[in-house]
Specification:
By secondary structure, the chain is mostly helical. The protein has one domain (18-217). Helices cover 78% and strands 0% of the residues.
Length: 218
């Protein structure tokens, strides 16, 4: 947990640096493909099944956990500051609680209502809807990243309740599917050309191999 805390918290700075050399969708696609290749290597080394899990659920998981989360969060970093974006993205437990209530029937009870109300008040204060100037776009994108992550959490929880699956295999395949969708988006959305250099490659390796592959493995 300590290693994961350090890797994911510092990665926001790495991504912000990487976006100096590539658009948000290009950067997201590259880190996903790097990460997926490493994860398939881990599957092979650990003798885990390489066959894909049920494609429909894995695709939906990849769409929200990888594509939605990474694209929205990278886009948010283009538009705004690292600190506020990260705080808003990590409101995902708040959204998970609400979506689990709707989709899974997990009820909010007792003091949980106070916690939800407090979280909603905090979210409102960070979003500052009364101040429409500045980085409003970044704030909305960051919240959408958290929402996408929350949806993927509910999908995984629902899937787990219906039957067991190899978590590492599912994580790897959803990363690949999510990365492919990122590639399609990057190809479809006009953006500046990637500035390839040694520093950029190092940043992509840090995000793809360390933050994405190692982080999700942890």
């Amino acid at each position: 947990m300590c290693a994961l805390w350090f890797i994911w918290s510092y990665n926001w700075i790495v991504v912000k640096e990487g976006l100096r050399f590539a658009g948000p969708f290009d950067y997201s696609a590259l880190r996903c493909i790097f990460g997926a290749v490493v994860m398939f290597g881990v599957l092979k080394i650990m003798k885990k099944p390489l066959a894909p899990p049920p494609l429909g659920r894995t695709f939906m998981l990849g769409l929200f956990q990888t594509t939605g989360f990474l694209c929205f969060s990278s886009w948010a970093l283009v538009e705004g500051a690292v600190g506020k974006s990260a705080v808003l993205i990590y409101t995902f437990p708040f959204w998970t609680l609400l979506f689990a209530w709707i989709a899974l029937g997990e009820r909010i009870r007792g003091l949980q209502w106070f916690a939800v109300t407090l979280a909603a008040a905090g979210l409102t204060l960070v979003l500052e809807p009364w101040d429409l100037a500045g980085s409003l776009t970044s704030r909305i994108l960051a919240v959408l990243a958290g929402v996408s992550w929350a949806i993927s959490t509910v999908i995984a929880k629902d899937w787990r309740s219906r039957g067991n699956f190899d978590l590492l295999s599912v994580t790897t395949w959803q990363m690949l599917f999510g990365g492919i969708i990122c590639c399609v988006i990057a190809a479809a959305v006009p953006s500046r050309a990637i500035e390839w250099n040694g520093y950029f490659i190092l940043l992509i390796a840090a995000s793809g191999i360390v933050a994405t592959a190692l982080g999700w493995l942890l």
